[in-house]
Amino acid sequence: MDNVHARAGGRPTTGRRYRAAFASVAVGLAVVASTVAVATSASAGTTLGASAAEKGRYFGAAVAANKLSDSTYVGILNREFNSVTPENEMKIDATEPQQGQFSFANADRIVNHARANGMKVRGHTLAWHSQQPGWMQNMSGTALRQAMLNHVTQVATYYRGKIDSWDVVNEAFADGSTGARRDSNLQRTGNDWIEAAFRAARAADPGAKLCYNDYNTDNWSHAKTQAVYNLVRDFKARGVPIDCVGLQSHFNSGSPYPSNYRTTLSSFAALGVDVQITELDIEGSGTTQANTYRNVVADCLAVPRCTGITVWGIRDTDSWRASGTPLLFDGNGNKKPAYTATLEALNAGNPTPPPTTAPPTTPPPTTPPPTTPPPTGGGCTASMTLNQWNGGFVATVRVTAGSSSINGWVVTVTLPGGANITNTWNATNSGTSGSVTLRNVSYNGRVSAGTSTEFGFQGTGTGPTGTPTCTAS
Ligand code: 9MR
Per the database record, which ranges form the GH10 domain (predicted)? Predict the structure, then answer.
C-alpha cells in the first residue's frame, strides 16, 4: 500500500503502521506534525481523493469490473478517487460459486486496477445472508459454520496484504424496533457466528482493518443503530478483533439523512474503532441533494476517527438506484452540484487528521528507554470460555502472565473423544484431538507481567473439559 501513500502526498494513512512509526521516531514528531500542517493549509485539493487525503482520509467509489473498459468511467475513477470497493465481485456467490472452488478473476481486475493506480481497496464482503451461492443457501448448522469460516479464511488469505479494510460481516441485524439479529442461516448456526468470522479474518490477514457494515444504522436513536453499537462495545470489551464500523448511508425520503448523524459517527468512534461511510448515495437533485452531501462530508470531517467515505457508484446511471440520481456525476460523467458541494466540504473541513495518525497526547520521553532486557520466567495461567452448540464449539482462552513478563507460552487443552479442532486464531496448535498444545504466534508471545492476551479455536464435537494449563516458554 505504499503507492497509496505516495498518491496521498507521502503521508501514511494506515493507522497501525503510522502508530509504529510514531513509536520509533518520537523525537521527530514535532517536525512531522508541522510538515503536515503546512501541506494542509498550502493548497485546497481539486479532486475528491486529493482533498480527502489532505484531511488524512480517503474518498472511494464502488466499482464494477465490467465497467473498467468504459473510458469515461475509468477516467473519472482515476482522476477523483483513491479507494475502491468491488460492488459485487467479492461477494460470496462471486468468489466461491461452488463449494471449495474459488473464483477471483473479476475481483482481481478491480484490485489490480486499484493497486496500479495507488488506490486503497475495501473488501466487501466475507459473510452475509444475501448473495450466497446456491450450495451455501442450502446449508445449516455446523456444516454451514465450517463453510463460512473456510470462506472467510480462504478469501482473506488470498487477498492478504492487499485490502485496507474488510467488511467481515454485512447486515446482520434486523430492521425495526427490536434491535434483534436478522434471522438467517448464518445466524441459526449460533449467536457467536459474527465473532467467529472476525477471528478467522484476523488470523488470515492480520494487517487488514476489520469492519462490521450495515444500513439503517445512521440515526443514533434507532434500535438497529443501538444494537450494532452494543455489538461493537461488547467486542471491544472482550477482545474480539474489530477495527471499524461501516455505515452504508443510503439516504432517500424513506430513510433520510438524520440530524444526529454526527452523534452516531462520534459515538461509534468513542468505542475505539474507526468509522467509515461505506456506501453513500443520496437520492434527489440540485441544491437539496448537494446540501445533504455537504452535511455528510462535514460530519465525517468533524469526527477524527471517521477515516473515509465511499460513494456507491460513480455516475447516476451506474447506481443500483439509478432512477433516484443519487451520485456525484450525471449519466454523461459531468460533475453535479452534489460533486461541487462535496469537494467544497472536503476542502473546508477540519484539517486535523484522524487520531490513528495524530501525535500522542503525552510528550515523547526525554530520557532513552532502559536497556535492561525484559524479565523472563514467572509463569502464566490460562482460563477458557466455551460457546457450545449441538455438534460444535468455539473456545476462547485467556493467557495471563504472572509476576514477571513472559516471551512465549504453551497452553494444553484436553478434548473429549470424537472432538476435533478445525480452526485456530492467534495461536498454532499441534494436533487436533485428545491432548492438544497451542503455542503463541509471532505477535502475541510477549505478555507483560500481570497482563493478558487471548486466542481461540473452533471445533466439531464437544469442547475441551477441565481447565487449560499454561507454561511460559
Ligand atoms: O449495488 C449492488 C447491486 O449491484 C447488487 O445487485 C445488489 C445485490 O445484493 O447489491 C448491491 O450492493 C449492496 C451492497 O452489497 C450491500 N448494501 C446494499 C447495497 C445496495 O443494495
Answer: 42-345
Asked if residue 320 has its Cβ within 6 Å of ligand 1, the reply is: yes
C-alpha cell at 294: 455537504
Q: Which of 176-180, 362-366, 399-403, 415-419 has the lowest mean pLDDT?
A: 362-366
Question: Which residue, by CA, sits nearest to atom 14 of ligand 1?
Answer: 87
Ligand 1 center–CA 94 separation, angstroms:
13
Determine the Cα–Cα distance for residues 383 and 398; give it in Å rounded to an integer: 5
Per-residue pLDDT tens over the stretch 77-136: 999 999 999 999 999 999 999 999 999 999 999 999 999 999 999 999 999 999 999 999
CA distances from 150 to 111, 200, 389 (A): 22, 8, 19
Asked if 327 and 313 count as a contact pair (C-beta separation under 8 A), the reply is yes
Nearest C-alpha to atom 10 of ligand 1 is from which residue?
88
Nearest CA to ligand 1 atom 20: 320
Of ligand 1's listed atoms, the one at least distance from the Cα of 64 is 4
CA distance 265 to 283: 21
Rounded CA gap, 87 and 321, in Å?
Answer: 13
Q: In what order do the strands lie in the sheet with 428-430?
A: 428-430, 435-439, 409-414, 465-472
- Say whether pLDDT at 211 is over 50: yes
What b/e sequence results for 393-417 when a residue is b if at least 16 CB atoms lie within 10 Å of its CB, and e otherwise?
bbbbbbbbbbebbbbbbbbebebee
The 10 Å CB-count burial string (b at 16+, else e) for 183-209 is ebbbbebbebbbbbbbbbbbbbbbebb
Instruction: Band the pLDDT of 443: cuts 50, 70, 90.
Output: low
Do 366 and 389 form a contact (C-beta atoms < 8 A)? no
244 Ramachandran zone, left/alpha/beta (phi>0; psi -120 to 50) = beta
Is residue 319 within 8 Å of 312, Cβ to Cβ? Answer: yes
CB proximity list for 47: less than 8 A, separation 6 or greater: 79, 80, 343
User: Is the Cβ atom of 279 under 6 angstroms away from ligand 1?
Assistant: yes
Q: Are the beta carbons of 279 and 254 closer than 8 angstroms?
A: no
| Least confident stretch, 6-15, 215-224, 459-468 | 6-15
pLDDT more than 70, % of the chain: 84
Domains of the chain by start residue, with CATH:
48-347 (3.20.20.80), 380-472 (2.60.40.290)
Tens digit of pLDDT for each residue in 233-291? 999 999 999 999 999 999 999 999 999 999 999 999 999 999 999 999 999 999 999 99
320 CA from centroid of ligand 1 (Å): 7
Confidence of residue 371 (pLDDT cuts 50, 70, 90): very low
**Average predicted confidence (pLDDT) for the chain:** 86
